[in-house]
Amino acid sequence: MIRHTVAFRLRHPAGSEQERDFLHAALALADIPGVQRFEQLRQTSPKNEFTFGFSMEFADQTAYDGYNEHPVHVAFVAERWAGEVEDFLELDYEPLA
Q1: Residues 19, 8: contact at Cβ < 8 Å?
Q2: Do 28 and 80 form a contact (C-beta atoms < 8 A)?
Q3: Domain limits of the chain?
Q4: In this predicted structure, what is the pLDDT of residue 70?
Q5: What is the DSSP letter of 28?
Q6: How many CA atoms lie within 13 A of 46 on its CB side?
Q7: Rounded Cα–Cα distance for residues 11 and 26 (Å)
Q8: pLDDT of residue 97
Q9: Most CB atoms closer than 10 Å: which of 12, 18, 20, 24?
Q10: Where are the alpha helices (DSSP H) in 1-97?
């Protein structure tokens, strides 16, 4: 299993229509084959400047690779993520045992 997570900050003002629209558009990622347990999260810690997070799981590397190459994901990154995300940190995990 691979848990894919990304913490990010948008260029849009907090609570704006643009922020809501971005988060709504990102829900399409949950429908990509292989994506399990998709979550959109709001950052609550004052220890960093990120405001949101996405988390999802994949059964294996093949499923994760399929997600990365899927046209919906590729289009979202090119059309939304690249222009609307100010900064981000991506972390991918596999269980130790």
Answers
A1: no
A2: no
A3: 2-43+68-93
A4: 98
A5: G
A6: 0
A7: 15
A8: 83
A9: 12
A10: 17-26, 61-69, 71-76, 82-84
* Best CA proximity match to 85, nearest among 12, 10, 23: 10
Indicate the CATH number of 2-43+68-93 among 3.20.20.80, 1.10.260.40, 3.30.70.100, 3.40.630.30.
3.30.70.100
Is 64 in contact with 6 (CB distance < 8 Å)?
no
Residues 41 and 31: their CA atoms lie apart, in Å, by 17
Q: What is the pLDDT of residues 42-67, one digit of tens each?
A: 999 999 999 999 999 999 999 999 99
Closest CA to 8 of 27, 24, 18, 23: 23
Q: Which residues contact 25 (CB under 8 A, 6 or more apart)?
A: 76, 80
CA 24 – CA 65 distance, rounded (Å)? 24
User: 81 φ, ψ to 5°?
Assistant: -55, -50
How far apart are alpha carbons 38 and 31 in whole angstroms?
A: 9
